[in-house]
Amino acid sequence: MKPIVVLGSGLAGYTLVRELRKLDRDVAITLVSRDSGDYYSKPMLSNALAQGKSAGALVITAAADMAVQLDFTLLQNTEVSGIDREHKQLQTSSGVIEYDRLVLALGADPIRLPLQGDAADAVVSVNDLADYAKFRGAIESITQETKHIAIIGAGLIGCEFANDLATAGYAVTIIDPTTHPLSSLMPEHAGKQLLEPLAALGVTGRFGVAVQAVDRQSTDYALTLTDGTTLHADVVLSAVGLRPRVELARSSGLAVNRGIVVDAHMRGSDASIYALGDCAEIEGRVLPYVLPIMHAARALAQVLTRKDARVDFPAMPVVVKTPAHPVVVLPVARDAIGAWRILTNDQEIKRGTKLGFFDAQNQLRGFALTGEYAAERSAMTKQLGESGI
């Protein structure tokens, strides 16, 4: 019997294998990883510095031990170059692999900005354990007494890294062309709540501008901004977002949009191929967050064990790891019709803000909680009931 083959050893791939084993101890599973395949928590990458954790310390379980615990065949450091859908085969650097059903849990790649300057190639992104090790090496090699890190992008990852780096003693400048942090997740009133707490840690915000060029100087890098000003940094970190890995699917003739197009069963345009995690577009939605990925993996495990299951996402808030000013958001779609509304009253004196997003029928569809209001996550989630995300 040909195995179920899982491409990818991130949260999506490993959660799926774990859920499959809960349902079927005997089905053959092969997991293919482009790197070592060691199991670690990717969300920890953006808050490990203040805890003093090295890349090695972030590994929870070695890949070989995972293979023994969950009884699957492991192929490490293996690149997949093509999918032969007719014969259900993969062309890989480890040879041809046959599959009964194939799960693409390929993840996503950092978006690379078209920067000018002779040091554009020195801008780093942190998307996996190897990236984190490289970044740690770069910042730890800074010889200046004041160690300055420039972060391009004030989204979720940029803000988390800013908080973590500043807590670890680095001077941080965060640069974003929008008006406020977390602009893709919540409105200006809530996003600006982050500025003062981060500034108290040593984070400087440059909003309404973008980076045009990065050039090498004698001891650091010079960043030229769109307003004509220049700032200097010892390391430049790009955190402008991720793009689902879809090229393997596209080259194999699978339907691709923003991500690999799948239905509520996580099944793609080929009935034997599924997609999960950051690379998947599930019924039009790309949900690159921990809870949706784990929820979808549980549903897919049931589908793969021949059960009649589909993913039905409940309301799953996103927790932004900014201890200086906690943030919890239940995002709404970019094209959602409705408006944000302040939910606090003049008698409340809590530090932070509470906002709700209401649709045309005055139904609560999302929320943003900052500061002390972040503790109301469960209560706000209950208000949404079964409306979903």
Question: How does the SSE layout of this entry go?
Answer:
Blueprint (H helix, E strand, L loop, with lengths): L3 E4 L3 H13 L5 E4 L6 E2 L18 E3 L1 H8 L2 E3 L4 E5 L4 E4 L2 E4 L2 E4 L3 E3 L18 H12 L7 E5 L3 H12 L3 E6 L11 H4 L3 H7 L1 E5 L3 E6 L4 E5 L4 E4 L1 E4 L3 E3 L2 H5 L8 E3 L10 E3 L4 E3 L7 H15 L13 E3 L6 E4 L7 E5 L9 E8 L4 E8 L5 H8 L5
Parallel strand pairs: 1-2, 1-9, 2-5, 9-20, 11-12, 11-17, 12-13, 19-21
Antiparallel strand pairs: 3-4, 6-7, 7-8, 10-18, 14-15, 15-16, 22-23, 23-26, 24-25, 25-26
Entry keywords:
3 domains; FAD/NAD(P)-binding domain; five-stranded parallel β-sheet; 389 residues; Enolase-like, domain 1; 26 strands; alpha/beta; globular; five-stranded antiparallel β-sheet
Explain this structure to me?
It is built from nine helices and 26 strands. It folds into three domains: 169 residues, FAD/NAD(P)-binding domain, CATH 3.50.50.60; 127 residues, FAD/NAD(P)-binding domain, CATH 3.50.50; 59 residues, Enolase-like, domain 1 (2-Layer Sandwich). It is 22% helix and 29% strand. The strands form eight sheets. A five-stranded parallel beta sheet has the order 5-2-1-9-20, covered by helices on one side. Strand 1, helix 1 and strand 2 form a beta-alpha-beta unit. It is of the alpha/beta class.
